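agent: user wants the structure for Nucleoside triphosphate pyrophosphohydrolase from Pelagimonas varians. delegating to structure tool.
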Amino acid sequence: MTDLTKAASDTLVHDPKGGMPRLVEIMRRLRDPDGGCPWDLEQTFATIAPYTIEEAFEVADAIEREAWDELKGELGDLLFQSVFHAQMASEAGYFEFNDIADTMSDKMVSRHPHVFGDENPDKSADQQTVDWEKIKAAERASKAQSGVLDGVAMGLPALMRAVKLQNRAARVGFDWPSTDEVLDKLAEEVLEVQEAPTPEDRFEEFGDLMFVMANLARHWKIDPEAALRAANAKFTRRFEFIEAQLQAMGKAPSDSDLAEMDTLWDAAKRAEKAT
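agent: tool returned. relaying tokens verbatim.
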């Protein structure tokens, strides 16, 4: 980097209103073999991918908590993940950051002919969902993804991927007609878990049980990830209530027993219902 180039880069990097060009340049500098950050230079697509997933969940968490002051920062963290991957791709000669933006723009224009094309804009959200899936199916066909389940990302959270796989299968008629059959299957899977003879069998049957639970959520139009997050939050609130009550008695959970903590758990439930 020449002195002139570095000066221009420094000006952009320290410009508080530099926007996307500033962020892209910061990432380029972090990955610069001449003076970059050793940690950033060691990273690969594979090592960064878990952080990308984590940042997406932190965005979802901020939204779930309606922490709007935090959301800007979390979205920035997620955006930085895209910039990080784009810089590594640029170094490898795969594509540039602008290629990502252009690809996404092309996709959105293609999938919204009722907004950007000559298709009738007067359609319901449900009809748009149907049309969206038809367009996506055509895109998969153009990529030689002929299988019904092709393109469902392996890296998705397991519950989310289960729902997506089931939705794909349902489009070609492979689905129970009502929740009655799903509930029957659920009872069957619970029994199979209970009767599993070995840890390996229990592992497999437990997975089957979770898969059916995802199917039940789909039939009831429940987001299983969101439902489990809500259950986690409820458990956290109630256990913190137990800790607070024990602390008021001069005790810690390790000084208590299950019977006492269960009584306090019921008190937490009553307190929640009273508010």
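agent: one observation worth passing along. The first helix runs from residue 3 to 13.
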